[in-house]
Write a structure and sequence with these properties.
Layout: E1 3-4, E2 8-12, E3 21-25, E4 28-33, H1 41-56, E5 64-69, H2 71-75, H3 78-83, E6 88-94, E7 98-99, H4 104-108, H5 116-125, E8 138-141, E9 146-148, H6 163-171, H7 183-188, H8 199-207, H9 210-218, H10 222-225, H11 230-245, H12 247-255
Parallel strand pairs: 1-5
Antiparallel strand pairs: 2-3, 3-4, 4-6, 5-6, 7-8, 8-9
C-alpha cells in the first residue's frame, strides 16, 4: 500500500472516540487515524486487515492508504499535536461526503441494497461489535451508496485482543456479535431477504486463496508489527481463517435473526 504525505491539517473529527482527523493531500481529503494515548497499533492493524479483506470481497468501503505523519507536520499544527504527539505511519481513508444517520427512509433509497447482507456477514466474520448499534460506522454517500467505515474495534476485543482471546474465540462455538440487536442492524435486517441474499459475498469468500489472506498480513507496516508479537499475528490469522471457514455456521445463526430471508444460501 502506498504511503502518501499530508499537505495541510483540516480539522479534528468531533464524534470519533479514536481521535481521527481530516487532512488535505495532493489527492483530496482523507480521514486519518494515528497513534495516540487512546488508539494503539492494534487499532491500526485492525483497520488495515479489515480494509484489505473488504476490498477482496468487493464490499463498499472508501479507498484507503497509509500516511506519514512526521514531526514537522505535527509541529506546524498545534491542534494536531493534541491528538498525535509523535510521528508515525497512520491509516487514512478517503473522505466521503455523506450522511451517517442510518434511517429507514434513507435505506429505502439506496442504490446498493444488495450489499447489505454481505456487510452483516462481514461483521460477523471479523467480529465487529461496533457497527450494529454505533452511529458513525456506516455512511450513505451523496451517490446513494451505503459504505462501511471504521474498523478499529473488531476481533471482538477491539484494541486489546491477545493471543489468548483469539485462541478462545477460535476454539469456542461460533456466535454472532454481542450487539446484533442494535438499532442499525434492526434497520438493515429488512434487506436480508429473498432466497440467496448472501450469494454475492459467499462467491467472494469461495474465491479467496491462502495467498490473499497472507497479503492482508504481509503488507502491514513494520512500524506497527514491531509493537505486537509474532504469536499475536499468528493467532489473528488463524482466527480470521477460522471465521471465514465457518461462514455457513454463521449464516445458520443469522436465519433466526433475519425474518425476511426465505432460506437458501448459494445459488447454483
Amino acid at each position: 500500500m502506498e504511503v502518501i504525505q499530508p499537505l495541510s491539517f483540516v480539522s479534528k473529527i468531533k464524534n470519533g472516540k479514536t481521535f481521527p482527523f481530516k487532512v488535505h493531500t495532493a489527492n483530496g481529503e482523507y480521514i486519518v487515524k494515528a497513534i495516540n494515548e487512546d488508539f494503539n497499533y492494534k487499532g491500526l492493524i485492525n483497520e488495515f486487515i479489515c480494509y484489505n479483506l473488504a476490498k477482496l470481497l468487493n464490499l463498499p468501503i472508501p479507498d484507503a492508504t497509509l500516511m506519514e505523519i512526521n514531526e514537522e507536520f505535527i509541529s506546524d499544527n498545534e491542534t494536531l499535536f493534541e491528538v498525535v504527539p509523535n510521528n508515525c505511519i497512520a491509516f487514512a481513508s478517503k473522505y466521503t461526503r455523506g450522511n451517517p444517520s442510518i434511517t429507514p427512509p434513507l435505506l429505502n433509497r439506496l442504490v446498493n441494497k444488495e450489499d447489505i447482507p454481505g456487510i452483516i456477514l462481514f461483521d460477523q466474520i471479523i467480529y465487529n461489535n461496533d457497527r450494529a448499534a454505533n452511529r458513525g460506522n456506516l455512511i450513505i454517500s451523496k451517490t446513494g451508496n451505503l459504505l462501511i467505515i471504521d474498523h478499529s474495534h473488531v476481533f471482538k476485543d477491539g484494541l486489546v485482543w491477545s493471543s489468548n482471546s483469539l485462541h478462545n474465540l477460535t476454539t469456542s462455538p461460533i456466535t454472532l456479535v454481542d450487539s446484533f440487536d442494535g438499532q442499525n442492524y434492526t434497520y438493515l435486517q429488512k434487506y436480508v431477504n429473498g432466497h440467496s441474499p448472501f450469494n454475492k459475498i459467499l462467491e467472494g469468500i469461495e474465491k479467496l486463496s491462502p495467498s490473499d489472506i497472507d497479503l492482508c498480513f504481509s503488507a502491514i507496516p513494520n512500524e506497527w508489527l514491531q509493537k505486537v508479537s509474532d504469536e499475536e499475528i499468528h493467532h489473528l490469522k488463524i482466527f480470521l481463517c477460522h471465521r471465514l471457514d465457518k461462514k455457513d455456521a454463521i449464516i445458520e445463526l443469522l436465519k433466526n435473526k433475519c425474518p425476511n430471508w426465505k432460506g437458501g444460501v448459494l445459488n447454483d
